[in-house]
Amino acid sequence: MAPGAATSRGRVRGTTRGGVEAFLGIPYAAAPVGERRFRSPEPAEPWSGDRPAGEFSAGPPQAVDAFVELLGLGPSGPMDEDCLYLNVWTPAADGGRRPVLVWVHGGAFAGGTACTPVYDGRRLARRGEVVVVTLNYRVGLLGFGCFESVPPNLGLQDQMAALRWVREEIAGFGGDPDNVTLFGESAGAGSIAALCAMPGARGLFRRAIVQSAAPDGMIEPAEAERRARLLQARLGCEPRAEALRELPVERIVSAQTACAAEDGPFSSNMLFLPVIDGDLLPRRPLHAFRDGHAFDGPLVIGTTAGEMGLYAREPAVSAFDPELLERYARSALPPEIARDAVETYARELRGEGLAADAPAIFCAIESDRILRVPSIRIAAWQSERQPQTYMYRFAWRSPIFGGALGSCHALDLPFTFGTLDAPGMREFAGHGEPARRLAGLLMDAWVAFARSGEPSHAELGRWPAYESGRRLTLELGPDPEILGAPGETARSLWERVPD
């Protein structure tokens, strides 16, 4: 018989596969449609009888480009504004109090979904005897637009609503509501950094794993309003909730995608981002960690070794030549380091046996500027208050496009879930025993951390805590090892730049 579980809104009926019970498409909030578009999440409507929970819900509305589709990181099914659902994988929906891992997906705050085979939690739940939860949240304008009469940061509010659902309901699925670990990648990891700085999220999770975050990727209200005006001009309506509710969602997605492509700094589609609103998100996460106002629990944080390599084949990147690189350094980098950055990163790349041409130098600088250096700073500040702070560098290299992407952004995803066989992942991440072994090591580390706050385990060995003096970092590659201050020459360059 199909497994069942009770929630406060009604019963759900899931499926069993490989010794794991799956409950997919459970509503954690009411559908944000009609009058609820641009409102804070509200409780889900109750239901009678057993609600089928054997299939993913729709993903949030978004534009999906060819590369995201190739990697299987966009919605694998339909898209709909009615998207506030989550998924639970559990060894058994019994009275067990197992550690709970809650995944927040990435997608540049404009896309992504929990409803994709890459984030299938079955292997992780079975391997670690844990409960795995993945969740959707509103993205793009619908989740992060800053307009008159629209509450700020609706996407972050959705995530908090899902975490409250976990606190109230997960015991019925065999999970421990007092032992919740957040983990996420890219915009999901940036969301976790924001949640760490949000007073309203205190007590909703105990530990955090932050994978490839851009933790300073938040904007001030004035900048959010400027971006809103860009969209207003394209949509031809007033930037108010009342007017925007009348528009078809397809028109909104089309307009925000066009604005992102037109406005230079936002060509990566990073048009709508979390806003430092002074209330829900009172300060930048970086500053919250620096000043001791952030979540102070156990933390794992890290990046891939070559984050921006994901974009190495983009025409705008591959077109970089030495002259354009110098112009970029003078115009885009802090003046404290602009003069020395190109030469410093060229030496660092050569020292690691990598190409040091203009596109590679640009990608290396941007990887550090946006992701690695802010993550190192958070690790250093957190370690001053929390001894269970750990840092990693994911150094497995993608075989796709002849290895051109290197150890790029998002490459750790199929290793995190053990989904190397998901569509697109064989080509992107590789396969075979070395890949499967690394996936096992990574999954076991995350499970160990969720259980005890320490990611060490027998197969991996001891993973020492991070501290500013030695900067011990676990390199996760074909042969994992502990490194002392990897990439230190380049990192030290950024010490000249104020926090």
How does this structure look, described?
The protein has 499 residues and is of the alpha/beta class. It contains 18 helices and 14 strands.
List its salient traits:
alpha/beta; 11-stranded mixed β-sheet; 18 helices; 3-stranded mixed β-sheet; 499 residues; 14 strands
Short description:
The chain is of the alpha/beta class and 499 residues long. It contains 18 helices and 14 strands. The protein has helices spanning 66-71, 122-128, 140-144, 154-169, 187-196, 221-235, 241-244, 249-262, 285-291, 315-318, 322-332, 338-351, 358-385, 400-403, 413-417, 425-429, 433-452, 488-493, and strands at residues 4-6, 11-13, 15-17, 20-27, 50-52, 85-90, 98-104, 131-135, 175-185, 207-211, 299-304, 389-394, 472-476, 481-484.
Secondary structure elements and pairings:
Elements: E1 4-6, E2 11-13, E3 15-17, E4 20-27, E5 50-52, H1 66-71, E6 85-90, E7 98-104, H2 122-128, E8 131-135, H3 140-144, H4 154-169, E9 175-185, H5 187-196, E10 207-211, H6 221-235, H7 241-244, H8 249-262, H9 285-291, E11 299-304, H10 315-318, H11 322-332, H12 338-351, H13 358-385, E12 389-394, H14 400-403, H15 413-417, H16 425-429, H17 433-452, E13 472-476, E14 481-484, H18 488-493
Parallel strand pairs: 2-5, 7-8, 7-9, 9-10, 10-11, 11-12, 12-13
Antiparallel strand pairs: 1-2, 3-4, 4-6, 6-8, 13-14
Helix pairs in contact: 5-9, 6-8, 9-13, 11-12, 11-13, 12-13
